[in-house]
Amino acid sequence: MVLSTPLISVVDDDASVRAATENLLKSRGYIVQTFTSAEDFLRSPRLNETSCVITDVQMPVMSGLDLLAEMRTRGYRVPFIFITAFPNDRVRASALSAGAIGFLAKPFAGHALIEHLDAALKENRNGGRT
């Protein structure tokens, strides 16, 4: 099922980042679901409907990079945008080589996230699962 309005999944263990990102995306007309962990996201009944994942890099148990790898292993090709409070070139390179559309350092400008999201959604028009 493809939704006419994209469903954006926000995965971050920081409640304030989840809330701010959700508010920004909803103000732009997106449908948003938020998750406190990668594990919660992977259990989502709407996993197949997700148009883009915006996730923190560093989270307890499963990192954002591990989440991307798991999604690819499961056959999902949905675009990922990473956000992190601890940016470094090695992590950025790992994220981008793994297929991330964007990599933003916290705090990030809302327009920068929207630019990455617009690019991700354009690339993902054929759906998130191969």
Automatic annotation (TrEMBL):
| Keywords (A to Z) from UniProt | Phosphoprotein
- Xref: PROSITE patterns: RESPONSE_REGULATORY (PS50110)
One biological process term in Gene Ontology? phosphorelay signal transduction system
Task: Give the sites modified to 4-aspartylphosphate.
Answer: 56
Q: Does the keyword Phosphoprotein apply?
A: yes
At the top level of its lineage, which domain of life is listed? Bacteria
Q: Which residues form the Response regulatory domain?
A: 7-121
Q: Does the keyword Transmembrane apply?
A: no
What is the name of the protein in this document? Answer: Response regulator
Q: Which organism is it from?
A: Bradyrhizobium pachyrhizi
